[in-house]
Amino acid sequence: METEKQLREKGDIVVFDASMGKAVFVSHQWVALHHPDPQFKQMRVLQGAVRHLLSDVGFIPLDPSTEESIPWYITRCSFFFALCPVIDSPDESRVLTPASWGQRSWCRLERAVRELSTDDTWVLIRSETSLEIVGSVLGFMGGSAGEGEFTEPEDREKFGPVLKQAVMKKLLLCLKSGDFAAYRRHLNLQGVYFRRLSVEPVCNFVPGFELNSHGCASVAEFFYQNGFTSIRDIDSSGWSPLHYAALRGDTELIENLLQFNADPSKRTTRDQPKLGCPPWTSALDLSMLFKHKDAARLLIAARAKLEGGVLPSVHFAAVSDNAAGIRLLCSARCDPLAQDLFLGVLLVGS
């Protein structure tokens, strides 16, 4: 089996240029230990899916330098396909499914980089005729890249710098385009992106912060970096400072905001499609959704309401497979059978 470098030297593959048309990045699982698709089962599904898409109108091994270029490939591609057919993997003694794709660390990384690019939507291919467009963080199961399954444990060290660079570029893009709500969202999700990776969130992305001698350092810097001036500010997405603090999961910051009389039960006034959050989402809901257990415990102690929005907090915990969060809510006397606004009860959980 020839490598990507060998194929390029022979002229069998070429360097893509935008003038050639549009490119597709295909994220897939390895079916065998030393070959991603030895019987070309996945390839046949991909070919069939492309034929299905167009009905109305080989494998290249990677060297380390190519692996590090994956984010560049993704940002250059107009489309991102997650190839997830249900097929047998004898080498791993299991069946590969969309769920197993969502558990693999490399697939999670590829997905995260796509969702941090200019066009954050992608296509999930389940079969030749079953294709879904995914456009939100919670539109598909999964989690942080650092919490995924690693075939090679040393790969974890590669992920941090790659994701940090992708986040930095996304933050800059948001500021340049004037999308400040998206900027705040990604700025405060860094702790989620970098979980179990050897990088720290960027805290001073916007330079020039100077602490007033009479102010609270954590609150003042948070306001400066997020463009807030008051504890009662509401941005264009209908979110308050406390909501973004809950997204970050910073207990010291949340505690300080509460001391400045932030309402622990304050709810958002608009939906947030990119996060899969309906309107009337609370800070406690967000801490459950993104598995910030300590932040959730602090909000519960501050008497945050456990119900009252479109979904009760226990539903947000279940959506993200947050078993610890569900136990915490139950210990606070949350009703595990609480109904949502549409009179639905929790049928799945952790």
Rg, Å, rounded: 22 Å
List unreliable stretches of 5+ residues.
Answer: 57-61
The order of strands across the largest sheet is 1-2-5-6
Helix content: 40-55%
Number of helices: 16
How many DSSP-defined strands? 6
Morphology call: globular
The chain-level structural class is alpha/beta
Provide structural commentary.
- There is one protein chain.
- The protein is an alpha/beta fold and 350 residues long.
- It has 16 helices and six strands.
- It has a four-stranded mixed sheet, sandwiched between helices. Strands 3-4 form a two-stranded antiparallel sheet.
- The radius of gyration is 22 Å and the shape is globular.
- The two termini are 43 Å apart.
- Mean pLDDT is 87; it is low at 57-61.
Q: Could you outline the blueprint of secondary structure elements for this entry?
A:
Blueprint lengths: L3 H7 L13 E5 L12 H13 L10 H5 L1 H7 L2 E5 L3 E3 L4 E3 L1 H6 L1 H11 L6 E4 L5 E4 L21 H22 L2 H9 L1 H4 L23 H10 L14 H8 L2 H9 L23 H7 L3 H9 L11 H7 L3 H9 L19
Helix pairs in contact: 6-7, 7-8, 8-11, 11-12, 11-13, 13-14, 13-15, 14-16, 15-16
Describe, in short, the structure shown.
With about 350 residues, the chain is an alpha/beta fold.
Features:
single chain; 350 residues; alpha/beta; Serine Threonine Protein Phosphatase 5, Tetratricopeptide repeat; 2 domains; two-stranded antiparallel ribbon; 16 helices; 6 strands; 7% strand
